[in-house]
Input
Amino acid sequence: MALYQGIEHVAVFSTDTARLRDWYAAMLDMKPVLDNGAGNYFMLMADGSLIELSPTTQGARSARPHMKDSGLRHIALSVDGNDFGAAVHRLVEAGVEAVGDSPRQFPDGMATFHFRDPDGNILHLISRPRRLSLGVAPQLSGAPVNTLVQGIEHTCIMARNPEALRQWYIDALGFQLIVRDDGHGTAFVLGADGRSIIEFIQAEADAGIDPYKAAGIRHIAIRVSAAEAATAAARLKPMGVEILEDYVARPDGVHLFFFRDPEGNVLHLVGRTDPLLT
Ligand SMILES: [Fe+2]
Ligand SMILES: [Fe+2]
Output
């Protein structure tokens, strides 16, 4: 097994995580599976993807970022082509704010719909005629079934220097380049698990560096084995990553290491002695 296995979860920080929890459940078929009693929830999707909702008292630099502002900018959710219309309809009926000239149908059969969640975070639905990922989703007990929204297809980073940044994810975290340019200047990298995908697009505006617990789509958690978590953290340190919370093996068996990528996006390693879900 690779040292850096792929994405365990993507975290959204909010001043009202209960509101987001209920909205993601109703509108996007996510199921709250963990609740720490203090406003932190893990939302499980049909294919095993996870979104962490984490409380914050810090606002973001902009609560309503533009599509091409630098940073962790959107989460794309996969929908089967047959369900795309119904999934869009549900959101439009609920009055979500669409972003850009969306929904869009592309000649190759791809369809996308960009919109904002109640906090102003940008999400999009995507259906593709051919999947980008290679991996088979794990069967998790308790995962929602018969859903329109299947899981996280990719997470997007708007980068000041997309070529250099994606190369860093390849060199430092073991991702592989699977699409160099999709014809719109977009590159995709795939994690060792064959399922985790990050999209890199040229940012058009520099949105600065937010505090690492500011509201918004705030971090990507990289799965490592608990046994190798210390090694995985130690490998990153000589690369000069900015450390936000140094490596810790918590008494509950969770191993963590919080840091920033070269453009300031927040990542953390997570290794669990006991699996989060089975
Ligand atoms: Fe995207
Ligand atoms: Fe996290």
